[in-house]
Amino acid sequence: MVDPAAKFSIRAFHVHYGQFSALRDLNLEILANEIFTIIGPANSGKTTFLHSLNRLIDLVPASRCRGEISLDGINIRHGLEIESLRRKVGIVFALPLPLPISIFENVVYGLRMQGIRDPRLLNEAVERSLRESYLWEEVKDRLRTPAMNLSGGQQQRLCMARILAGQPDVLLFDEPTSGLDPISTARIEETLLILKKKYTIILVTNNVAQAARVGDRTAFFLMGDMIEVSDTGKMFTTPADQRTSDYITGKFG
Amino acid sequence: MKPMRVRKLKEWLIEKTILLSGIFSVVFVLLIFLFLLREGLSLFRGESVIDFIFGKSWYPISDPPRFGILPLILGSLLVTLGAAAISVPIGIAAALYIAEIAPLRLREALKAGIELLAAIPSVVIGFIGMITLGPWIKNLFNIPTGLTALTGSVTLAFMAMPTIVSIAEDAITAVPRQYREAAIAMGATKWQTTWRIVARAARPGMLAAVMLGIGRVIGETMAVMMVTGNAAIIPTSFLQPVRTLTATIAAEMGESVQGGPHYAALFAIGIVLFVITFLINGVADLYLHRSRR
Q1: Cα–Cα distance between A199 and A185 in angstroms, integer?
Q2: Rounded to whole angstroms, how far apart are CA atoms B288 and B173?
Q3: What confidence tens digit (pLDDT) does each residue in B140-168 have?
Q4: How far apart are CA B25 and CA A185, in angstroms?
Q5: Which residue, of A128, A137, A169, B159, has the greatest Cβ tally within 10 A?
Q6: Mean per-residue pLDDT of chain A
Q7: The pTM is what?
Q8: Minimum-distance CB partner of A83 among B187, B201, B293
Q9: Which B residues in the span 159-188 are in contact with A, Cβ-Cβ below 8 Å?
């Protein structure tokens, strides 16, 4: 049965890269307004899963997907135009990647691509999304300066603002703090906790403690299989599977 | 103790050798410029700079000789602008196609072809321009001669194209893959990504490609001498014979008297060419630095 609160529902989903099986028989529901964290060692299929959700995986020529993913009950392969899917499901990558233009232009990039020209709308979007990503106070006086001059943590929050400007439903984060210092990391985590009131957040992280700090529910992936999924508190106190317990306590991975 | 000192000496030697090579390249440019000045400036003892640059007639062996290079400057300018108008859009579009759209095998084939085009000697291109393009233009426009500024522009566009395509293609390929992913992840289409992100990020490199291509066109001598008709008159249309600065030097240096006014005038043309290329490089540099900041 499909849970009516489910944002994404994933049914019998497989991904192959050529002969290599990257993700096997995944069944999962992701609820609206939760922070769903995914942990697991390298090559366990975490990024593959994220990239399946907004079909970035289509860029890998050898990839083949089987099974079904739907967003709000609509199949993402057949029911939606790929560009509008990607606007609804924004992604923030591991390394902050501002485009080589000004802060303002970075934020409105997606809007300009949609053909929005009205300066009032653009200004509003910039302020709203920079406030949402908690960058506004730091950059409001230098919106026209190059984004490359910002620090790493600021750049990452700028990338968040860039996604938020397009008013998505779901935010995907692929190890968003792996290149940042602890203080910038803390700021991003605070931001996530506030953003979840408006958005559904899926966070892939290599940092087990981060999953415990911000997650509502957590899934553990290993070698293309989802080993277990449960409330984050439960996962970190009484994991059901021995392999989960070993990974969380640092015995491997 | 000893190997340490030997190693330090080696470091020192390498460092100084590199420094010396760097200094040499600058010194050579300066020496060339000084040589040009020494040979060319003597002209201006009997001739004013204004008359030289804005003079409308170039009759170097009449009596008294007249050294006005305006027709030559305009000839060079016309041919260069024409060549740029043809080669820049086609070159950039070709580079975008090769780097972003072409499937891998076609891409390799196209790159090899373009490198081959760059390797054709200019005299061969000039020859082809003279015997095929010239008559074709003559018949097409029904004009008395096919050796015109347009013929020169088309011929030179062929010479600028490989430079523009290969350097622009390198610049486009060098755009980090993550930029493309970020744009596509935001819902951009393939074309929006190519045009708004990739072409924009590669702009400094593409500008350098255009400048180098134009530099090659301005400096080109042999092909242009063969196809432009070499009439030192002020051009009023693309369908007229023109004469360029470079072709003038190449054609007349052999028959001028060393140390005489004609000889000095040809060197003064060299100075003008040097200044033009210097300006183009300067503008390109300025622009590159500005867009990098």
Answers
A1: 20
A2: 18
A3: 998 888 899 999 999 999 999 999 999 99
A4: 49
A5: B159
A6: 89
A7: 0.74
A8: B187
A9: 176, 178-179, 181-188
